[in-house]
Amino acid sequence: MAIATRSKERAQRSTATPSLIPGSRSSSFWFYLLPGLALLTLIIVVPLLWNVYLTFTSYRGIRPPEFIGLENWVELFGDTTFWTSFRNSVAMIVAMVVVPTLLGLVLAAMLFDLIGRKFGGRVASFLRATYYLPQILPGVIAAIVIGWILRPENGALNQVLAAVGLGGLQSNWLGSPETALPSIMVIMVWVQLGYPVVIFMAALQRVDPELYEAAELDGANWFQCFRAITVSIIRPEIFVVTLTCAIAALKVFGPIYALTGGGPGSSTIVPAYYAYSEFFQSQQVGYGATIATALTVVIAVVSILFVLVQTRLERSEEAR
Amino acid sequence: MAITETTAGKTAREAVQEPPRQRRRSGRARKTAGDWVILAVAVLIGLLIAVPFLLILANSFKSPTDYASGGPLSLPSSLYFDGITAFWERVDFPRKLWNSFFISSVVAVLAVGISMFNAFALGIGRVRGRTWLVLLILLANMLPQEVLLYPLYFLFRQVGLYDSQWAVIIIFTVIQSAFGTYLRASVYGTFPKELLEAASLDGASRWQILWRVIFPISRPTLSVLLIFFFIWTWNEFLIPLTFLVGNDNQTVPVAITVLQGDRLMDVTTTSASALLGLLPTLIFFLIFQRTLTRGITAGAVK
């Protein structure tokens, strides 16, 4: 008897899940998904599959793609430029994830705990807005702003160095292989720093001040409070920030395009720029598609790992 | 960068309000030397971040000779507008502003509309397989755009939309609405049931419920989405660069970037070009500052 009703329920549920509007069957809502799904198929799904197909072909953009099996993939794994581009991606992760997150944590705590408390919320909000300023610009424009300062022949940085008697430190910042990547990294730190500060400051409002008072009574110093209370409470935000910034770091394209074109040599090449140049400069479409697909796989793996680690940490937290 | 930001909801409003609880020991009066040192450090970092903006501002109004004699740190000896006007005319800046404005506005409106329809079906209609559908839709937002680049390039060439602003508009409508769908679907999933029941008792159809009940109630958050989609689209680079090769179709960031390193760009004209590139977004930021901070934080808090 009980089994019978339960299976009947299940049968009902599978034919029509109830919508939130009484009397409306959920299947009648498909109509509203049509425009969105049609566009999605055309603009995302078909190109994505097509791109995967192109990785198995030799295609120079004029004659139809020629199937060559795994050749592109084999070439990719032996391609030093490709590995360099991912090594540079690691540098981008340092510049766009590691440094901004760590610095952002300290700055947010500083602004919220000390400056907001002792000098007023206005001072803190003003400083926060200043830190956030580079974030509002299009990435390429931000790069151009700093690129202007780093100009080789009469750039502001070189002139200032000469003026204070440090002319020996002058350099073709973006044009020589030793300084190009570090210069780009500095630019990306400048661009990225405001984002974690804003997010963490919002998150800090959840922290109960009494926890700090209790900790202080127990003789904890500022750094101990910071680690034990602040960091553990805003951990969800730390995850969101590191994940979104890591994806952004792997996808970087505009600043490289605007400043160095991957050079000098391949010293600042990143996967996104490498794929672009294979598509439109070398006309090696099949190979460019392979690079882009590899990048997608890396982003997917990074995202999944992040989410897995996060859920595991949350579980162990709950178990405690 | 921008991909990370998100939109407001209830959490946002809570998050944004000025620090709600005053710490009990109002320490305003007691400032130690250490506090002043920390303030100085924070201000110094702020200055360091602001300096590039100030340099660009000061040097955009200098003549090249003024720059050569006074260096980058001095104020302009006299206001010189030739660099800005030269660049303004060279790129036909009003035209580029209009292009960016047109593309971004159309994308924002279309993407909000599609987000709302999708979210209506997924959140309120609860169609079957909705979790998978949301994940599939979210793909549009997660993928590196390079994966789509060549097939889309080929596709739009075939249909004659290559070098047309509509190609860019269609692509970004899909990408932005993916994010909007994800956000709205979860919000509509918690829509007050009583309102929907009352409306359907009054005999309203699904279409009427969407427009007369759901749309008016969610209008504030939809307008936040609208602003975000507008700015994100404005800041995009790779796809406009690929699809808008004609000078007349280019957006502001593309037009400014492709002229960098040009022989005719002297030092102060380059500075002026950077100034023109950053001014529009700076103005948006000043107008929408509250909405934006609210939105950015909402995404992470959600």
Plain-language structure description:
The complex is a heterodimer of chains A (320) and B (302). Chain A has a domain of 174 residues: MetI-like (MetI-like fold, Orthogonal Bundle). Chain A is mostly helical and 320 residues long. About 2% of the residues of chain A have low confidence. Chain A has 15 helices and two strands. The radius of gyration of chain A is 26 Å and the shape is globular. Chain A is 73% helix and 1% strand. Chain A has a two-stranded antiparallel ribbon with strand order 1-2. In chain A, helix 4 crosses helix 9. Chain B is mostly helical and 302 residues long. Chain B has a domain of 167 residues: MetI-like fold. Helices cover 73% and strands 0% of the residues of chain B. In chain B, helix 5 packs antiparallel against helix 10 and helix 6 crosses helix 8. Chain B is globular, with a radius of gyration of 24 Å. Chains A and B meet through helix 2, helix 4, helix 5, helix 6 and helix 7 of A and helix 2, helix 5, helix 6, helix 7 and helix 8 of B.
Kindly provide the name of the CATH class of the domain at 92-258 in chain B. Answer: Mainly Alpha
**What would the principal axes of the Cα set say about the shape of chain B?**
globular
The share of residues in helices of chain A is: over 70%
Derived structural class of chain A = mainly alpha
- CATH topological fold name of the domain at 92-258 in chain B: MetI-like fold
Strand order of the largest sheet of chain A: 1-2
**What is the CA–CA distance across the termini of chain A?**
42 Å
Task: Give the total of beta strands of chain A.
Answer: 2
Attribute tags:
heterodimer; A: 320 residues; mainly alpha; MetI-like fold; two-stranded antiparallel sheet; 2 strands; 73% helix; globular; B: 302 residues; disordered N terminus
Give the helices and strands, then pairings.
The complex is a heterodimer of chains A (320) and B (302).
Chain A: H1 2-15, H2 30-54, E1 57-58, E2 66-67, H3 71-77, H4 80-119, H5 121-132, H6 139-149, H7 156-163, H8 177-192, H9 194-204, H10 209-217, H11 222-233, H12 235-251, H13 254-259, H14 271-280, H15 285-319
Helix pairs in contact in A: 4-5, 4-8, 4-9, 4-12, 5-9, 6-8, 12-15, 14-15
Chain B: H1 10-16, H2 33-59, H3 64-70, H4 82-90, H5 93-124, H6 130-142, H7 146-158, H8 165-188, H9 193-201, H10 206-235, H11 238-243, H12 252-258, H13 267-301
Domain ABC transmembrane type-1 (chain B): 97-288
Subcellular location (chain B): Cell membrane
Family (chain B): Belongs to the binding-protein-dependent transport system permease family.
